[in-house]
């Protein structure tokens, strides 16, 4: 059973508190994604759970056991690193077998488990190769194979896809999600890519400057962001923020409208503006509109809406899906 | 990568490379040839290149006048001994600096390297006096110590660069995979560090084998390595070019053979980090 609980966990490097204090519950079998801009402490938090860094204060409970003082090897966790961290001098087979060998299992059972893992990950033909003879995606699969063979309490992923090219990343994203459905083991996944977070997570933890900004399901965060940071971070293209008179009209300091919640018309609407840049994606078009008295707004319209640079358009925000924030940046509900 | 090189350019490059290679190799070749000449032909003007009376007389003469094997053994003991002792000190220190650096690590490394910039003759007198007072003059122990000391900065630097190249994440992966410190060292660190240690070992044996300044000044007869054996043929009574050449050939032959068989490791060692 792989539940993980963090109680008042903090990490201080020198005089700098990377993580001031964090409380978090991860239930067994959950796919949790830590997401945030670089330097927000998400990797540090993962390394604290792994035991690769010592906590400065607080408690880490894994599977009901206080693991704060345990060395990484005895926490029952597996980790997949950004650089894959394969053992370059060992074959794929030995790489995957390594954790089992360290656990002192007998050869027959090691062989069987390695073959099984290789089959799941499509690595059977590559078992006798060295990591340097593999492509990036294959290396990543070996790293995952090494993580799954010993059936850990939980998997930790530290930005595992950031070294892959875009197409492969989409594939591996899907493979990891399928693996989670197959194994039903707790997974903690760190990324700076909000698309990865949205598509894979059961629960997203948005981090900023070592603090948790919000915890929730992907759609929760998308629909009901607690503050400006989460509102701006989740969703692509980014949410538009408007301050001043238009916001005051809604009794708020700032209002936020997602690009997909703005209706466009060539004839009439709430705000008037001129098209700055039109990005045609085929299915959709992203319009960057200079709205009079407001500033640049991004709107997402269907691919058929034909406008170009310099055209005049009218924008109407969907009042139902408008987000209101006070002067501290907190959501008004 | 796949640059189109015309045949003409290739030819020029080949010729230039061979010319430079031959220029560098020429002194060694000339020494080798001279060692088979008579003393008269050795100093003949104009010099004779290949058409002389080939003789092995110089070698037997040299061997009868001074015991080659004794000097050879001294060289082996001193170069291998100082390299092994150096590695014994350098491995833990390079290790510590590569894997748990502090803000002073770079300074320490620079300071160590800076000692190599000082001309050795500057400390000859104090070193000589220390060696005399401690009874280390003309002993193998003394030479092992001094060669260890002078090569230590290079050994540490080389190992440091090697260890630096071992990604920390791999060690962390081993820790996550349940390896204890001992198993981490046996199964992961050592196999990854061995090529680096081997190159360092080879390069330093060669450096120590060829070191002449300290070995000549701190040894006389008993502990004298091959460098002193060569030098004894350039004596105040006059130069014996043929015999000097024979002695030189005998002195460099073992290390040339060692270098020949390990050239792959050596090149890797010297260019490490320069190419990925």
Automatic annotation (TrEMBL), chain A:
InterPro entries: AAA+_ATPase, ABC_transporter-like_ATP-bd, ABC_transporter-like_CS, ABC_transpr_MalK-like, ABC_transpr_MalK/UgpC-like, Mo/tungstate-bd_C_term_dom, NA-bd_OB-fold, P-loop_NTPase. It is a peripheral membrane protein. The keyword Transport applies. Pfam families: ABC_tran, TOBE_2. Its main location: membrane. It comes from the Bacteria. It is found in: Cell inner membrane. NCBIfam families: PRK11650.1 (NF008653). This is Sn-glycerol-3-phosphate ABC transporter ATP-binding protein UgpC. It comes from Rhizobium meliloti (Ensifer meliloti).
Automatic annotation (TrEMBL), chain B:
Keywords: Cell membrane, Membrane, Transmembrane, Transmembrane helix, Transport. The keyword Transport applies. Residues 72-262 form the ABC transmembrane type-1 domain. It is found in: Cell membrane. Belongs to the binding-protein-dependent transport system permease family. PANTHER family: INNER MEMBRANE ABC TRANSPORTER PERMEASE PROTEIN YCJP, MALTOSE TRANSPORT SYSTEM PERMEASE-RELATED. This is ABC transporter permease subunit.
């Amino acid at each position: 059973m792989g539940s993980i609980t963090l109680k008042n966990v903090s990490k201080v490097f020198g005089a700098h508190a990377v993580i001031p204090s964090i409380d978090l519950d991860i239930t067994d079998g959950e796919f949790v994604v830590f997401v945030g801009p670089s330097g927000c402490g998400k990797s540090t938090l993962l390394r604290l759970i792994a035991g690769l860094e010592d906590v400065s204060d607080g408690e880490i409970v894994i599977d009901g056991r206080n693991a704060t003082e345990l060395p990484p090897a005895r926490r029952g966790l597996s980790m997949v690193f950004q650089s894959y961290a394969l053992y370059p001098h060992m074959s794929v087979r030995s790489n995957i077998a390594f954790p089992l060998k360290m656990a002192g299992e007998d050869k027959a059972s090691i062989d069987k488990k390695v073959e099984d893992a290789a089959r799941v990950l499509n690595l059977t033909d590559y078992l006798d190769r060295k990591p340097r003879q593999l492509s990036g995606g294959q290396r990543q699969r070996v790293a995952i194979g090494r993580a799954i063979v010993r059936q850990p309490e939980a998997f930790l992923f530290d930005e595992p896809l950031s070294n892959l090219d875009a197409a492969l990343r989409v594939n591996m994203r899907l493979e990891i999600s399928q693996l989670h459905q197959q194994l039903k083991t707790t997974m903690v996944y760190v990324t700076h890519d909000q698309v990865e977070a949205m598509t894979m997570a059961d629960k997203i933890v948005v981090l900023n400057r070592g603090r948790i900004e919000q915890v929730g399901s992907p759609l929760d965060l998308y629909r009901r962001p607690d503050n400006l940071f989460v509102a701006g971070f989740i969703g692509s293209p980014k949410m538009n923020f408007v301050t001043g008179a238009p916001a005051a009209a809604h009794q708020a300091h700032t209002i936020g409208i997602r690009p997909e919640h703005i209706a466009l018309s060539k004839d009439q609407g709430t705000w008037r503006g001129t098209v700055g840049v039109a990005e045609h994606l085929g299915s959709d078009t992203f319009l960057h509109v200079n709205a009079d008295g407001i500033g640049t707004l991004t709107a997402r319209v269907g691919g058929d809406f034909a406008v170009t640079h310099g055209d005049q358009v009218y924008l109407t925000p969907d009042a139902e899906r408008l987000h209101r924030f006070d002067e501290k940046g907190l959501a008004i509900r | 990568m796949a640059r189109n090189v015309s045949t003409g350019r290739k030819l020029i490059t080949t010729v230039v490379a061979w010319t430079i290679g031959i220029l560098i190799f020429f002194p060694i070749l000339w020494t080798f040839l001279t060692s088979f000449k008579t003393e008269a032909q050795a100093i003949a003007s104009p010099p004779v290149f290949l058409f002389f009376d080939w003789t092995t007389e110089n070698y037997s003469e040299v061997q009868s006048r001074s015991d080659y094997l004794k000097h050879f053994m001294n060289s082996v003991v001193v170069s291998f001994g100082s390299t092994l002792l150096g590695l014994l000190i350098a491995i833990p220190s390079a290790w510590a600096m590569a894997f748990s650096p502090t803000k002073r690590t770079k300074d320490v490394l620079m300071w160590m390297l800076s000692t190599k910039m000082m001309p050795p003759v500057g400390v000859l007198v104090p070193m000589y006096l220390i060696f005399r007072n401690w009874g280390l003059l003309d002993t193998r122990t003394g030479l092992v110590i001094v060669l260890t000391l002078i090569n230590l900065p290079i050994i540490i630097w080389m190992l440091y660069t090697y260890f630096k190249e071992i990604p920390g994440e791999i060690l962390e992966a081993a820790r996550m995979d349940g390896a204890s410190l001992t198993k981490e060292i046996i199964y992961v660190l050592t196999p990854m560090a061995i090529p680096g240690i081997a190159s360092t070992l080879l390069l330093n044996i060669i450096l120590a084998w060829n070191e002449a300044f300290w070995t000549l000044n701190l040894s006389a007869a008993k502990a004298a390595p091959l460098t002193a054996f060569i030098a004894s043929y350039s004596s105040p009574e006059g130069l014996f070019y043929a015999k000097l050449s024979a002695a030189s050939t005998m002195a460099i032959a073992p290390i040339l053979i060692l270098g020949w068989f390990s050239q792959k490791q050596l090149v890797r060692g010297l260019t490490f980090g320069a190419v990925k």
